[in-house]
Amino acid sequence: MNTIKVMTFNIRYGQAKDGMNHWDHRKELVIDRIRTFDPDLLGLQECRDDEQAEFIKQNLPDYDFFGVRRGGTGETALEMAPLLVRRSAFHLRDHGNFWLSVTPEIPGSRSWDSAFPRTVTWAGLNHLSSGRSLIFLNTHVDYMPAANDASTRLLLDWIDRLDPPLPVILTGDFNAIKDSATYRQLAKGGRLADAYRQVHPSSAAEGTFHGFGLPGVLLTIDWIVISKEFETLEAFIDTWHEGDRYPSDHYPVITTLRWQP
Question: Global pTM?
Fold first, then answer.
């Protein structure tokens, strides 16, 4: 097959005091939504390196899981932005991570008045069915404006310095809406594009953050960004919920990509 199914999903950290939407009450829903769409590549955000990550690993045993604690102080230090790769679809060449800061190689580092340390996890992959290579990245960008803008530039610089240049798939919670400078730089700047917008160029139904169904709260901050070597065959936002129970306070975004000739 010449296609790759990609999903990005902020699953909301497991220690949050969310009442009926606490992790213990919705973790099976998270796995169900992932299994429903069965992605080849999956980027998660707000996955804690504790029982939450273990539950994900145990229930998705056909994926390789890569992530690192973002660090810092307090209980949020355990949060990760891990990526998962289906073993039957890819051969792993290498993988790593860096921090969105002026010292990206230093664990737990943060800059530009960011509220928290933020990580990027990446993997160099060979797509088995096509024989082609790519880089898959996943991140959770800080919401402070200066940090958001500088993190975008750092991400683009990292991608531009790939040697050799390789096709890129980037997933994440970017904490920026689609009329922001961050979006213009990252998804409309030339090399990279918003996969969803390739098939829905003027969609009004792009909201991903909903705060567990809060009225009037719907922000388009979760994206899948791709390089020109891919085209989008299908893209949608999974808004499924069961009454007042939601898998997360974010809806996942799912795309099916095809390699360009």
Answer: 0.96
